[in-house]
Amino acid sequence: MRPKKTRWVSCLPGERCFKPVCRPLDKVKGVYLTLDEFEALRLADLEGLKQVDAAKRLKISRPTFSRIVSAARHKIADGLVNIKAIRIEGGCCKVTKKRR
User: Fold this and answer.
1) Largest Cα–Cα separation, the chain
2) Going along the chain, which residue ranges are E strands?
3) In 10 A of CB 54, how many CB atoms?
4) Pair 40, 69: CB distance under 8 Å
5) 36, 68 Cβ separation under 8 angstroms
6) How many CA atoms lie within 13 A of 78 on its CB side?
7) Which CATH architecture does the domain made up of 20-91 adopt?
8) Distance (Å, rounded) from C-alpha 67 to C-alpha 39?
9) pTM metric for this prediction
10) Residue 50's CB: how many other CB atoms inside 10 A?
11) Are 72 and 33 a contacting pair, CB within 8 Å?
12) Residues linked to residue 94 through DSSP beta bridges, in sequence order
């Protein structure tokens, strides 16, 4: 298997774990969202960028971006529907320096 290409993110999450209020963290299962999946969701759903433009920001191909955002949406849906904690960690990412 080919090694993953480094993805460039411009926004780190303020919180790394979101959990249901109704259950303690040690009693709830979790899903893991990588930093590149978090950034893909932010670019596509929050900023409303087209996949081509969002892929350029992450410095990856459009099909790769599509796979990443699809996996992220699946994990978020799983966490919400099945009452799981959503943890954000890992991935082969580097943070870009913001331009002034």
Assistant:
1) 44
2) 7-9, 17-18, 30-33, 85-88, 93-95
3) 24
4) yes
5) yes
6) 15
7) Orthogonal Bundle (1.10)
8) 13
9) 0.75
10) 11
11) yes
12) 8
Going by the DSSP 8-state scheme, the letter that residue 26 receives in this structure is: G
Q: Any residues with CB less than 8 A from the CB of 100 and at least 6 apart, and which?
A: none
Locate 70 and state its tokens. Answer: 């699809």
Rounded CA separation 18/24 (Å)? 12
Alpha carbons within 13 A on the beta-carbon side of 49: 19
pLDDT tens-place values along the chain, 100 residues long: 656 666 656 655 566 778 787 777 778 888 999 888 988 999 999 999 999 999 998 888 999 999 999 999 999 999 999 989 898 876 655 566 554 3
* Token reading at 60: 């990856």
